[in-house]
Design brief:
The complex is a heterodimer of chains A (221) and B (452).
Chain A: E1 9-13, H1 17-27, E2 32-37, H2 40-50, E3 54-58, E4 60-61, E5 64-65, H3 66-76, E6 81-86, H4 91-99, E7 104-107, H5 112-123, E8 128-129, H6 131-142, H7 163-173, H8 178-185, H9 189-205, H10 209-220
Parallel strand pairs in A: 1-2, 1-3, 3-6, 6-7, 7-8
Antiparallel strand pairs in A: 4-5
Helix pairs in contact in A: 2-3, 4-10, 6-7, 7-9, 8-9
Chain B: H1 8-28, H2 51-59, H3 63-75, H4 79-90, H5 100-104, H6 108-130, H7 134-137, H8 141-156, H9 159-173, H10 184-209, H11 218-279, H12 284-304, H13 318-333, E1 336-342, H14 349-368, E2 373-380, E3 384-391, H15 403-418, E4 422-428, E5 432-440
Helix pairs in contact in B: 2-3, 3-4, 4-8, 6-8, 10-11, 11-12, 12-13, 13-14, 14-15
Classes of the chains: A alpha/beta (221), B alpha+beta (452).
Chain lengths: 221, 452
């Protein structure tokens, strides 16, 4: 898959036609848009057919949540990666779609250049954390901080952020780029990315109450 | 009438508006309350002539109680009906200058018609009483007066009241000519209903009348049942329709009020903003910040239930405060503030000072950095609260600070240090500036948060 870095194949799922064409024109020829869909069913069919590198996925779809698309596709096409796009900043929306397997989340107000960057990063297998998502994660993992030393045994490694991961997330929330974070923390950009990926994994697999609650709330509504 | 002004239409229009206002007044105080002024027939809440609603508004007694009294006293001798109809005739409606009676004085034909109808009914009743139908005879005078008054009302009421009367009478009369209701089938069914009802009525009356001839106690009962069945058959659909109409009217009114509320809010917020955006179309920064501010307002309205422009967004917690800073700075300086807060706590004096410093730093970044986005990040930790204000603007060399910049740094720092906090400013020319504000939390706040 050497072509990915140059022009990733992108599939757009959003129920607003206007928004889809807006994204298409913003992305320009930096990516190859291989298809688009406006609802869960056509999205699953279209993605299975065109096998894109990255799916830009709206969290809210008329026929269900974006997480339905993610869970259906990851079973049949594990190579397809998802980047969630949302107008909503509600944690339950964002966390639900991340926990179902999306590799990142950005708001719909993101600029074209930033979106291209995020798509590239997701296509390369990295995680994309917007400042907002970093804030959510810090919130969700914050509550056990004070008694970290007397941490109960059942609190698995997945349910805790390391201090380094916490530093990285804080800097993301403060508006730093990965490169700036690397410089700030005296680590390499690659290490920053591995921290972020590890946070993403914890985010998806942790059984922390806050995360499961957010995810359940979304699924139930 | 001589009292009528030159242009009756125009005066009626303004009178109606005035009437509407007075009629609305009791509702403002919630529920029914005394109105003060002279007895007037009400337009709002009117069922037939608005008499009961008027009495209710005048005395403070519930309109439905008044109606019940009228109905019961009508059934017992017809007295209530007469009082009602006469009140309808002689009490002016809200917003009208004269009563229907004052207008009826000049209606010669109406008076003649009323007299005719009344004497006709009187004759029928007289014959009935001669035939020893004592049950009918006992009702002799109230129906006569009521009928005469109704004829006068019918001829002299305002067009609107006539419409109400027509609507009420329509099911009995079988659809007035020109009314859109009756197709041929409907009319046939209606006639069938009326005929059956009349037959039942006659049979029932006959049984009752012949009561003294027979000894069976079952017969009067059968007669009463037959008459009740006739009445239900005749009037049932009519009552159903009135009940339905009332319900539909109330729902329509609630919907209209909701829509008006929605419209005024959308107007105050969205439409105003769209107008501003059109006027500033050549200033992208302004347009973006207007759109952002509007988006946030709509979002907080739709999802948090906070009305646009309401003041309950005034901060009581740190997160609220951060959001307020974001809104103010975006609105005043036309830049995007990306505000994120982690954790939350109630504001005390120290944290209010922290927020004031954060606001100053944000405004400063908006004014001087030249960047179009400022990141505002607040984190509540058990021991301290930190706020980071970061821009990617032109930055500056801390060693060679211009006067205004230094002024800011000093004032922010002084404000923080007075409260036991700290402020650091980091800036690199060409890369931007970050202000870090930290305020230790009061010892009482440092209780560990529960593990989850």
């Amino acid at each position: 898959m050497s072509g990915i870095a140059a022009r990733p194949a992108v599939f757009i799922v959003d129920d607003h036609g206007l928004f889809r064409s807006g994204v298409r024109s913003e992305l320009g020829d930096q990516v190859e848009v291989v298809g688009e869909a406006d609802d869960v069913e056509p999205a699953i069919a279209g993605i299975a057919r065109s096998e894109p590198d990255v799916v830009l996925l709206d969290v809210h779809l008329p026929g269900g949540g974006g997480q339905d698309v993610v869970s259906a596709i990851t079973k049949s096409h594990p190579g397809v990666r998802f980047l969630a796009l949302s107008a909503s900043d509600a944690p339950e929306d964002v966390i639900a779609v991340i926990r179902s397997g999306a590799r990142g989340y950005v708001t719909k107000t993101i600029s074209g250049a930033e979106l291209v960057g995020a798509i590239r990063r997701v296509a390369a297998g990295d995680a994309v954390f917007s400042p907002r998502l970093a804030g959510f994660v810090l919130d969700a993992f914050a509550s056990a901080q004070p008694e970290q030393r007397v941490r109960p045994a059942f609190d698995s490694e997945l349910d805790q952020l390391t201090p380094r991961e916490r530093d990285v997330l804080r800097l993301i929330a403060r508006g730093y780029t990965y490169k700036e974070i690397a410089r700030e923390l005296f680590i390499s950009a690659k290490t920053v990315e591995s921290h972020v990926s590890s946070v993403l994994r914890k985010l998806q697999l942790s059984t922390r109450h806050q995360l499961t609650r957010w995810a359940t709330e979304r699924r139930l509504t | 009438m001589d009292q009528q002004p030159q242009s009756p239409e125009a005066s009626r229009c303004t009178d109606r508006q005035r009437g509407l206002r007075t009629a609305l007044a009791p509702h403002r105080h919630g529920g029914w309350s005394r109105d003060g002024g002279p007895l007037r027939r009400q337009e709002r809440g009117r069922f037939v002539g608005g008499v009961a609603a008027g009495i209710s508004a005048r005395t403070g007694i519930g309109a439905n109680i008044v109606r019940t009294v009228f109905v019961i006293s009508s059934l017992m001798g017809g007295f209530g009906a007469v009082v009602y109809v006469l009140a309808w005739l002689f009490v002016p409606a809200v917003g009208e200058d004269g009563s229907i009676a004052s207008r009826a004085q000049s209606d010669r034909r109406g008076i003649a018609l009323a007299a005719g109808a009344a004497s006709l009914l009187a004759v029928i009743l007289l014959i009935a009483s001669l035939l020893k139908v004592s049950w009918l005879g006992s009702l002799s005078w109230p129906p006569v007066i009521a009928l005469a008054a109704l004829v006068l009302i019918w001829r002299n009421a305002s067009a609107e009241e006539q419409a109400v009367m027509r609507r009420l009478a329509e099911p009995i009369m079988g659809g007035t000519p020109g009314s859109p209701v009756g197709g041929p089938r409907r009319r046939f069914r209606f006639r069938l209903r009326v005929i059956i009802a009349l037959l039942l009525l006659i049979v029932g009356l006959a049984i009752l009348v012949s009561e003294h001839l027979t000894r069976a106690t079952l017969k009067p009962l059968t007669g009463v049942v037959a008459i009740i069945a006739a009445i239900v058959l005749l009037l049932g659909p009519w009552w159903l329709r009135i009940a339905r109409d009332l319900l539909a009217e109330r729902q329509a009114r609630i919907r209209a009020e909701e829509r008006a509320d929605m419209a005024s809010r959308v107007h105050d917020s969205v439409l105003q903003t769209l107008a501003l955006i059109q006027r500033r179309a050549n200033d992208p920064h302004q347009v973006i910040s207007l759109a952002r501010a509007q988006e946030r307002e709509l979002r907080s309205w739709l999802f948090d239930g906070r009305a646009p422009g309401s003041l309950d967004g005034l901060a009581t917690t740190l997160t609220d405060g951060v959001r307020l800073i974001q809104q103010e700075v975006e609105a005043q300086h036309g830049i995007v503030v990306e505000a994120i807060s982690v954790g939350d706590c109630a504001l005390d004096d120290d944290l209010t000072a922290l927020l004031a410093a954060a606001r100053e730093a944000t405004v400063n970044a908006a004014k001087w950095s030249g960047a179009d986005t400022v990141s505002l990040f607040a984190e509540v930790e058990p021991a301290a609260v930190s706020v980071f204000v970061r821009d990617r603007g032109r930055g500056f060399d801390p060693a060679a600070v211009p006067k205004d910049r230094k002024g800011l740094a000093e004032s922010v720092r002084a404000r923080m240090e007075r409260r036991g906090g700290s402020a650091t400013v980091r800036s690199t020319p060409g890369e931007g500036t970050e202000v870090v504000l930290t305020m230790p939390r009061a010892a009482s706040h440092r209780e560990p948060s529960p593990a989850t």
